[in-house]
User: Fold these one by one.
Assistant:
Number 1:
Amino acid sequence: MINIAVMGYGTVGSGVVEVINTNGARINQRIGEELNVKYVLDLRDFPGDPVQEKIVHDFETIIQDEDVKIVVEVMGGIEPAYTFVKRSLKAGKSVATSNKALVAKHGAELLSIAKEKNINFLFEASVGGGIPIIRPLNSSLTADEIEEITGILNGTTNYMLTKMFYEGADYDTVLKEAQANGYAERNPEADVEGYDACRKIAILSSLISGQQVDFEDIYCEGITEITVEDMKYAKAMGTTIKLLASSKRHGNHLHAIVAPCMLYPEHPLYNVNGVFNSIFVHGNVLGDAMFYGSGAGKLPTASAVVADVVDAAKHLNRNIMTMWDQEKLRLEDKSDAKRRFFIRMKGDADKLLVDLQYSFGEIELVHADGLEGEFGFVTPVMMEGDYDTRAKSYKDQILHMIRIED
Ligand code: HSE
């Protein structure tokens, strides 16, 4: 029998217990031994719930029990999760977590402790919910130099942008709807400002580079400025707008960014709609691959956590992870990345055209039906630093800039 402890009986924690109860026989078959949830750590009691007999309120019960071989951390946040996970690993217990904030900040250190102890620190559920992406990067795509990972990594914002695009709804209305449907939190900042996607792309960037990528170093722009008017231009151009989290290799550097981008229908992520997530990967020998599915929610996330538990159980005394040093990677400066830019501008296109061509080069004008006193245009490919310099002279006229992902 392999005993585990689940720390946190919230949405994901209760999902983990449910998955083990529902699929226990199959899971045991896959491990080759019986998996037993010995403890569930939570501050609360759950009278009437069968889990109550396993509830403990003190982490010391778990850490001091040598029979507990695997600890599941689904509490979220940095503390006390970090302290509990570190102590568990140091005590020789493997850890599976869904906690992206913890992994993004302390992943490299926790992995090195697991390696030293010949156990495992696994975090499949921290990126893309139920979609396998961490394990493919670590086990399947190991022959490649990964040159690009671009993902729709946040279900809440993808749901909102999909509604805005297909229904013409405005930002505030779709946010309220997303909150009513339980997709967006009452405080939606982490999702709509792009912070959640930023931590996820920081984890993926660390994994593909093998070095520490700090999320604070990644330029991060959310969807709060996206308007009904932006969507009208997107439609007029035959594009859609998605919140992309992207990491691309340029020589020895990675360029990482989180920002809303315009995508043409040829782009593999164009058709990823609603709460779904998807991750596009390009390897230098593989070429392209796509991962798509349920990126959030109780059971999809719990499915990934329990799969990590199965992996940890199959490798109790063997470290199977991974290339991620604590040495920090210097990211390419945002201003050096090249792309096209869509700009919405106040005024009359005919009057400004010559001036804009002088400033930006061969621009393409875009007109959207029903919008008075403004127009749009697309720049040629240029470095973002050059765009910033040129756009300075028009700062009072520019209504919005959205990057184009060709
Ligand atoms: N709030 C996140 C999302 C949950 O909407 O995708 C999964 O990390």
Number 2:
Amino acid sequence: MTTEKIIPLADIRYASRVPHIPARLAAPTGLLSDTRGRPLRDLRISVTDRCNFRCSYCMPREVFDKDYAFLPQTSLLSFEEITRLAKVFVAHGVEKIRLTGGEPLLRKHLEVLVEMLAKLQTPQGKPLDITLTTNASLLAKKAQSLKDAGLQRVTVSLDALDDATFRRMNDVDFPVADVLKGIEAAQKVGLAPLKVNMVVKRGTNDAEILPMARHFRHTGAVLRFIEYMDVGATNGWRMDEVLPSAQVVERLNAEFPLSAIDPNYTGETAERWRYADGAGEIGVISSVTQAFCGDCNRARLSTEGKLFLCLFASQGQDLRALLRGGYADEQIAAAVAHIWQGRDDHYSELRAALPADTSSPEANGKRVEMSYIGG
Ligand code: SAM
Ligand code: SF4
Ligand code: SF4
């Protein structure tokens, strides 16, 4: 039995810079590259910092309690503001948008935003890949309207099939059966391929790896095992609670032989495996034991419009200040280009160079929370 140390949250949400607007406004080419030669392809947008779950690895209830100051409605980017920024990012090469949070389905009328984003096209005239990560508590109710609005697929987070384990992990006593209903509804309306994310914490839910695999084989859903990460500053992360993906694959392979398959695209976070008997595919996301910063083409837009270039960043760039400060799209596009071209983030690679039980002391205690920046 491990005891978890919960660290009080220092509110650093307001630590941000107002971006510099370059004097020369070059038109976007879709070919931006950062200081490590990485393009900008993937934008994750947090549409709310609120959630109806209190997963201990993300929003521990000791911190996110009734006194916690969530952002006021006026701080949030409106759908029009989000779409305006998304358009700028798409002009710079973004092809994929993931809506996240907090719990994105708590944001009222989210399907209206999906509809607005679905109208955007890449400079080559292709539609965007639009997806959503959700705890599925409201998915059964919303799957059809999201699909009708133009959402293509969803990723559902589910950490256990055993009801008692899952209720403990979400810490609001939410039952597995209702998540499964959400998954079923999403598959029924054609939100596919559906992915299921399971964060694996050694000693908490690693006994659920095989039951989860057995359940999702032959269903068309792609189950992905995520290493528990030292994201944010409140979850009391410890290396000994991380189960390396290599061990997850070993355990699965012992019951269901697996063979490796190629990534779908450069920068894909999951390493893909196929069941040898044709029962489908699984993935492992090894953010801790195998840094994949080298191909990281993701930017994150926080609930209140701050741009973060890394999940482990401690400061954002305040794009909302530009939106609400009367700047033109060309100026905002030039500011975004300037920010991306200066990007050097590679936190997971740095962490890999540290002693086993530490996350970067420099970043520790200063990082933004995942519920705010978007997973
Ligand atoms: N509420 C939605 C959900 O849970 O799917 C979307 C937001 S949540 C922050 C996005 C993803 O981040 C989820 O799949 C969640 O399991 C994952 N996540 C949160 N904290 C994590 C941590 N410490 N390590 C690894 N994954 C984490
Ligand atoms: Fe909520 Fe998702 Fe974080 Fe769990 S992982 S607390 S569901 S935002
Ligand atoms: Fe990308 Fe930062 Fe994660 Fe590296 S640590 S893969 S740069 S988000």
Number 3:
Amino acid sequence: MAKIGINIATGSLQKEEMIVGIDLGTTNSLVAIIHPESKQPLALKEHNSSSLVPSIVHFDEAGNVTVGEAAKQFLITEPHNTIFSAKRLMGKSYNDIKDNASFFTYKVIDDNTESLVKVQVGDKFYSPIDLSSFILKELKQRAEHILKTPVTRAVITVPAYFNDAQRQATRDAGKLAGLDVLRIINEPTAASLAYGLGLGKEESKTIAVYDLGGGTFDISILQITNGIFEVLSTNGDTYLGGDDFDRVIVKQWMKQSGLSEAELFENKGLSQTLRLKAEEAKKLLSNAENFELELNGNLLTISRTEFEGLIKPFIERTIKSCESAIADAKIAVSEIESVVMVGGSTRVPAVKNAVSAFFGRPVNDTVNADEVVALGAAVQADILAGNNKEFLLLDITPLSLGIETMGGLMDVLIPRNSKIPTKVGRQYTTHKDGQSGMRISVFQGERDLVQDNRKLAEFNLSGIPAMPAGLPKVEVSFLINADGILVVKAKELRSGIEQSIEVKPQYGLSDEEVERMLLDSITNAKDDIAKRALVEARTEGEQLLETTEKFIGKNASLLSQQELIATAEAMQALQLALTMEDKDLVHRKVEELNEISRPYAERVMDQAVSTAMKGKTI
Ligand code: ADP
Ligand code: MG
């Protein structure tokens, strides 16, 4: 449903409603678009004001809500009804945040410690989703005011480490604000998109994204291959950022003016002024050498050198995190091909220099560091809008895709919520000697048994040359291209024969159906796990019987009479267990048979049999 808007500035008709990119930050939030004429990403701002909207929500006595710069003025003077850092509470219970409870100057409800937190202001309660929705609503209104057209669709960014609950909470906040959230993308991914990294189809690159914001530090190592962004590792400190820089400046000024903690605590107005002035000083010091201020007859000063000395420990902590992230990604620093700087605090020259020194290369800082995430979100939005056909569409699969394996089990190759395009391969083998064909049945869904999932396609890989069971290597690969088409290919690696099929997984599947399939998988989860366990136990038992029988047939002469009798008995017991609905019994009998055969199997190591005992069979 396209709306038609009129651009008052140019008088032109805008037929296609724009999809905006939103950086919903802990400290600041903003909206960006791809300019329809210049095709360049652009952060939206009103004349003579900043594109940044402080992520602060203020409630007055009457319950009126203000967001942004106007709300920031109340940060210290009205701590109980001025909510900052709501993003830290997204998807969290009180238990999750209790160690940092003193950080929040407003009331975070602590009586229900397991369920999601709420914030109390006066006699009203707000969820972090409500609070974020106020910020998003403000951003939406601003954008509509500037663009003179309705804004209803958005791409919103979240930290790479956000879990499903936090991502869902962000989506819900968008919905509450009247936005259709087309995609949630990772902040470091957005930042790289803003630099054009990963937009080339054939590109393969390992990059680091260093994000130092107001109160949080994140380092992410990303691997970009053919437009797919994979997070190799993340690290950081959720309580380290520019606010700490402001605080050390305030401390220095307190010394200079002889002000005590107690005096500042008493005089909230003065405390507020000092904090805001310290932030101003810090920003100026990114370009100037000295800062001076007269306050109540006191001369307050700070030089860049002093400032750098004060923040050195913080910078060192971020570098330690970078080391850990590199180690977790299992790569060497020298393998990082680009370093992207994100967050207002990376404007501090000492920060830039330390990061550049650590990675041994100049950093990418040409894009405005506090806008870069939103600009990248706009790039993604533009690709989604279909305006940028050259680039790959980064999408996700709503349901898992897999094939049927022995016993009617679902073997997932591409889990739900995987980014597309994507490619996954897995090897299977036969379970009968001389088996010449293999049926590949493709299913979609979250249930453990394929009978409960949706069958997408089926084909036969025929012409497998005669080989003992377990010897053929059939590689089944799933490839979802940028248009969402799934190509399933099966190839017997020893002979090279192959077969493939194309399907449209989403075809004829409505959002409601996807939702129902997900719900089904949750309500049946326990039952499914039990069924799967039984099927797996039985398959294992059957396979063991088959391989043991074959082994005995071939090697009976090498075994003692005693071994043969014990094996026959154990096989019989296992056979019986297979007819009962008791996976534990099957496991026990499998174990018993294994105990008996292990000593002689080791003695008569047979390559083919040991392979058969390992591989999965279809
Ligand atoms: P977040 O991602 O947490 O929302 P931002 O990326 O907007 O945060 O960064 C906000 C922080 O950047 C604040 O602490 C702010 O003071 C700091 N900052 C902004 N500009 C500068 C500058 N020129 N020099 C130093 N710090 C700056
Ligand atoms: Mg940020």
Number 4:
Amino acid sequence: MSKILVTGGAGYIGSITTRHLLAQGHQVVVLDDLSRGHRHTTPPELLRIVHLQDTAQVEPHLEGVDAVVHFAAYIAVGESTREPELYFSNNIGGSLSLFAAMARMGVKRLVFSSTAAVYGNPEKVPIPEDAPFGPVSPYGESKTTVERILGQLDQFRGLRSVALRYFNACGAEPENGLGEEHEPETHLIPLLLRAIESGQPVQIFGTDYPTSDGTCVRDYIHVSDLADAHVAALNHLMKGGASAQFNVGTGRGETVMEVLRVVEEVTGKKVPFTIAPRRDGDAAELVADSTKLRRTLGWEPRRSELRQIVEDAWTFFQRGRG
Ligand code: UFG
């Protein structure tokens, strides 16, 4: 059993990863300022309400901690283009403050929430980890910068870290009452479900991409499988493993219209939609080459069939929220 500090543990992926860590027998402390996370997602006895940028407030919570899993960040790509300073300050500033506190307290293992957005518009799909960085939004830039900083901290602080580059996180764990609760919501699957409920059409952003049906292709990965990747990354670090970066995706891609059709099949309802222009910054196709994660950490997706993802998201949407 290890003692793990989870920053941003009241958010979507953080709360579900916390459950997986507890199920493995780890002791967990959750740091969250609840600016975007939700109090009800975290067992109250584990939650510490702390601003990550306040280094002195963070330090005492690192006492006796074996490793940190660092989720805390703002995640909306569109918002980041309107408020870049907010994203740099929160995502880079918050991380730096955490790393300074870790250095003071002698904590030398970290799993970092990164993103496919570090690649921008990749030259090659499926995308391997050694593809060049090319972020096209302040959000992507903030995560890229933190990954670069971690490279230096490995060398000069002996901080061993694993960066997990998520593709399209989705799905839910309705059995734990946990799933996506972003406000405002920008992600495709919850928006399709909301459109069914409200009758307000969802916009399909672009039907003229060079893909099978003209809509964008994404690699949808179930949040449960993402959480498992964090547990595997922690085990790697606890065994003395070296710093590394891994894509977390299935290696399969689905178009927006394919996702919409699966939502209709699972729910038995029509999704009202309208065709809209392309959304700024959307790449035509983002699919992970996840060979490295499978080979190095023995990770395999278990719940990421699109039908399963949508069933879980729908169950959570209908009864699991709040
Ligand atoms: N889409 C629509 N209509 C909507 C919302 C989305 O057509 O109302 C489309 C998008 O254009 C895109 C696909 O559905 O083609 C998926 O969009 P999401 O917003 O759900 O996800 P993204 O692929 O844009 O973003 C995800 C993560 C980001 C991360 C990015 C990495 O949410 O955090 O992948 O590229 F940065």
